[in-house]
Amino acid sequence: MTDIRSLTKDELTGALTALGEEKFRGAQIYGWLHRQMADSFDEMTNVSLKLRLVLERQFELVTLKAVQVLTSQIDGTKKFLFELPDGNVIESVWMQYHHGNSVCISSQVGCRMGCRFCASTLDGLVRGLTASEMLEQVYQIRKITGERVDSVVVMGTGEPLDNYDNLLRFIRLLTSEKGQHLSGRAITVSTCGLVPQIYRLADEKLGITLALSLHASDDETRKELMPVARTYGLAEVLGACDYYFDRTGRRVSFEYSLIRGVNDRPAAARALAMLLGGRNCHVNLIPVNPIKERDYGRGAWEDIEAFKKVLEKYGINVTIRREMGRDIEGACGQLRRSYGRSRQERGR
Question: 281 catalytic, yes or no?
């Protein structure tokens, strides 16, 4: 069946008129799906029972079920484990900042990028999420918390640009003026550096922020941490980021996970400053979240501050990411893996 929540308003209108319905029904049902965020066709109270039965037969209405919700006692951050219609589970996070509420969503079940410090990739890629499954993370969090969502970051499990077509459809639906009408400027998409897709995304001119997972200032260290660097070197990936800025006018954010003894020394900070110097960009330093399957650890806070000061000395715009939900398995992929293990144990 057709995934109705993944259809644009025009596609939905076309599908309904092909079934003999009047054109206005497209906008009406689209509003139920994306403004009222309906979980079932029965909620569409101003739609006739006859049409609701037609919708039931012709379309699939994807909804997600929250199977676990953890709330941080430190800062109120909520981490959600959602079950998909096929039984797979994904993670999403709701965070409160002074500038508004932000939701971090997943774009895939698992990930095949193999970044050494990330739990999301340990079990490989299962599949990409549909546009409706990405939207549903935002919609369900809005309904569960009762709060508005001011910004969305596609920075959870998965490589968004490895699920390019569904990602694009998700962004267009989320920014649709007949739906949530979120500004493109309030959406950030993170990538480990799939160069051809960065160029494609730049040409879409969506107005979103691109965040590159950089994590090293030289190719050899980056190859050690991120297998994608064996395909796309720093010069190539930074060239793609420059193209993105030129085409969109949106400065690129560079994510840099600080790993003790690997990429957190002052020499690495100076090399990073030389690498990024002259670019209109922002560096987001991330104290690494240790995972038990890897031996990468977090440095002392004074080392993190010293790294930041070196970058500032060279005129780089830099912040240290505020740690949210430290007490609720905050790193991507950890909650999903622990849930999977407990489900296996219950099965046995």
Answer: no
